[in-house]
Request: fold
Amino acid sequence: MDNIKTFKKHLEKKIITKVDLEKLYALNNNHIFRIINEFVDLCKPSKVTIISDSKEDIEYVRRKAIKIGEESELALEGHTVHYDGFFTISNHDQARDKENTQVLVSKEQQGIYPWINTMEREKGLKEIFEIMDGAMKGHECLVRFFSLGPKNSEFSILALQLTDSFYVGHSEDLLYREGYEEFKRLNGSDNFFYFIHSSGELMGDPPVTKNLEKRRIYVDLKGGRVLSVNNQYAGNSLGLKKLALRLGIFKANNEDWLTEHYFIMGLHPKGKDRITYACGAYPSACGKTSTAMLPGQTIVGDDIAYIRKWDDGYCHGVNIEHGIFGIIKDVNLNDDPEIFKALTTPRETIFSNVLIKNGTPYWLGDGRVPQEEGFNFSGEWYKGKKDENGVEIPFAHPNARYTIRISELLNADPMLNEPNGVPVHLIFYGGRDSDNMPPVLESFDWEHGVFLGASIESETTSATIGQEGVRKMQPMANLDFLVVPLGKYLENHQRFGQSLDFPPKVFATNYFLKSKDGEYLNGILDKLVWVMWAELRVHSDVNAIETPIGYIPKYKDLELLFKRYLDKNYTKDDYVEQFSIRVKKLIEKLDRVEEMYRKEKNMPKFFWDILNEQREKLNNIGKEKGEIISPLDLS
Ligand code: SPV
Ligand code: MN
Reply:
């Protein structure tokens, strides 16, 4: 037990207490000692603290995040604010860093992933180990244990996190289920993911990462681990979020299940005594959380799901999280009433990168009178303040976020922690598409659904660093996180659905359709109608119109649903404008889909068959009926 001996040496150096050492012994797992030893020796924290599932340990993390200034208390009970690093509008730590996130692969594997940043494993490890050397100097390193998924569930994967950020540790308490006791049940096995994170050298008050140019997030598939350094933004730093998503995708795609960028929600149609469970994948900042939090419905999860074939013939899904790290921009009483209410009620909540005035958080699109001054990520802020490049600093970041626990919400689904998950009856795929796809479209069958998911296009948003508004293909809203070849991923999807007696029905949604004048054609809450129409289709309660690209709703059904759910009069003109089949635009989209997927070497045949068939159908109908076809001409 060399690892334990080494640990005793750490004890002699007084960087860990006897009580904490006992907590580690109780886990009876030499792999954990090995990992902690390796990274404590490398990162050189001045103290190591083991956090169990006890209330005192968890409270210690929350209190200390405040004490060291990573979070500050706000006026409402339980509310705190955290800031991520900011130098200029284009150089900050307030979004995911795609460029410096690398998947470490062998030399032979390089080149088989045209869409994924890859780096040769040995080279990547050498580089990041050098950067991590001494990264935790003067810091306290937390050792945390979590369960990705409900406790006692065959879906779940355990996760070990080392971090020197108390904000990261605290966020993980809000977002994930505690797993110290679950680790005991591993019986010494190494069947868990692990994540090493360091904010690196800090500067300023509040303390933020100084050396952003040395920010690295390296995904080591072979080691079942992710190493992340010189960052604080949760999408880069929290091992259990997008870093574990990548490891989960790798594991699932080498087994026979799915790890997806899905919300899970319960749909409760008015006047019917049933719950229908839906998953949905949308690129970041495209309405995913606000769909999962639609009024009158219940939420299981808003970001990541594990999906497995189940013995009732359906696939079942669990939320691997139990909290929400949501975009706060545009959350207001009108458009996102459930979220707005949750965020203005006293409860444990972390706001990040918002403006604070008199202890109250303000954010873009909050529906309140904008403040002229306050404190934000740039320090004291005043209207018109510019960064050193002369670019105006908004009062809050467009990717500012909130972190809350789902179980505390009134709309939490009762099945949130069910070890067997919930049956998945339908899946939504949504993009940010101003000019071609209709607001809602039902696939012909499972394979066509996979095709629809694979061909989501979306304009880039502030959730990742870089230019906004660039149209990109976003297969299953998962391309940013993919660590297996896209062709293999899609083939696995196809096979997975085929193995089910009742594969989910698949729908594409588009909340971002615009008129010729650039105005959005839909209200933000209209998504409730699209979602409830899909629910009716799952139960064959309404008919639909067949088009070359899938089924669309009939006017009379939408008219009724708009009245029933939003008390709105939905006009025939609106319907025609929104649901016309834009033949020319759709053929252009297919061309873009083809161009992208031609670069992928081993694409499954069904994909090309569907693409060719769609193009032929669109060409034919275009010749017969013109470039833009009214849905009224199709019924
Ligand atoms: C997303 O961007 O999809 C998120 C937030 O859910 S992040 O953790 O940054 O990925
Ligand atoms: Mn996400």
